[in-house]
What we know:
Elements: E1 7-12, H1 15-25, E2 29-35, E3 39-45, E4 51-56, H2 63-72, E5 76-84, E6 88-94, E7 100-106
Parallel strand pairs: 1-4
Antiparallel strand pairs: 2-3, 3-4, 5-6, 6-7
Amino acid sequence: xxxxxxxxxxxxxxxxxxxxxxxxxxxxxxxxxxxxxxxxxxxxxxxxxxxxxxxxxxxxxxxxxxxxxxxxxxxxxxxxxxxxxxxxxxxxxxxxxxxxxxxxxxxxx
Length: 109
């Protein structure tokens, strides 16, 4: 496959709960590593195929602030905080190198 995904990030507000859920749902090996003095990053090892990481969402629940911060750091705003009916909000940014990234905020239940 040309240009396959090589890493997936799972950002969550409850790392412990996510680790418990995904380790039971999938046959993943989760390995914690220190990320600075007080944060932990969890490597997701899936065996063959795309792996990833799991960490506490650095800006939970505030897509407008995250989009604004990205812009202040040099990102181009491709789509600014549009509502996806009954689901949440989406922003699309292009980082200073031109790589596109979607930001997501789930609608509160």
